[in-house]
Amino acid sequence: MREESAAAEGVPSAGLLPYGATGFLRRGAGPLPEVPAAEFRAALHHAARVARGRITAMNERSYPLTYHHALISDRQGDHTVLGHCHLRWIAFVDDVAEIHREEFVTPPDWAVAFTHAGFAVLGRETLRLGLDQAGWDALTPFERREARFHETRTLGGAVFNRWD
């Protein structure tokens, strides 16, 4: 799949992270947005059909994770999919782990199926952007402390996190 452009709707652009990206509340901003797990699951089923594969695992988000994760298997192998639980963002990683810092991979061609369900598929280059380029200034002082504490240096690590 072609890497997405930062100008695409719902995709983080340099210096701008939307509310809910890190999973932390901000004073006066109201409740965090929620992406129902059922919508992520429906998008997964659609993507698996497009890939001519099948979902071999699906785990809904549990606190403090900011994402659901799933495994789609097709003829090319297994693909680990992360679905942000506050924003309609999808990412692909090398493995199923609870901490994702830099192991983001280029989405397979069939990942475009997630866009049909209203999700933005974030590419490897976007997710590996340094936080200083991708939105350090948009983080609250508390979120910055969390990023430092967890040694998070990338956009992907900040938004697909397990900070507590």
From TrEMBL:
This is Uncharacterized protein. It comes from Streptomyces lonarensis.
